[in-house]
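Ticket opened by: R.M.
Priority: normal
Category: complex prediction / small molecule

The reporter submitted a protein together with zinc ion and asked that the result be attached to this ticket for the collaborator who will pick it up next week. Submitted input follows.
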Amino acid sequence: MSDAVLTSLPAVASRVFTSCKKCAADRYQIVLAHTNATTAKVECEVCHSKKSFKLPSTKVKKVTGAAATKKAQAAENRKNAHSKEFGDLVASAQGGEQSYNMKAKFAMNDKIKHHKFGVGVIRMSLQDKIEVVFEDEIRVLVHNRT
Ligand SMILES: [Zn+2]
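Result attached by the on-call engineer:
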């Protein structure tokens, strides 16, 4: 993941991290379809509201000076907000770390250890999916597979 400006639409079924008005927060949103060359239909993974995602205009000249600083600051803030959420969740998680296994069943606030992504805390648990906050990013994993 990088904060580089997108120059083409993310692929259908991939995820894009962008703001959700309904959640009033940045969320991972699933790309449902491409409406045209610069617009896609996306669905928020958390509240499932659907909306349009527009590519930033490519006509914009390279951002410099104060605007560039502001943009870097915004990216930094977003990273810090994620780190804070991760830290808070780890601190409030119940019990010890459980090894992640797609056959196991996990609940909200469980702390898990993933062989690849490391320690994460579950912030949402559905029938067959869990949303896990890892140190670097939020991932949706399967669980409760029988
Ligand atoms: Zn949302």
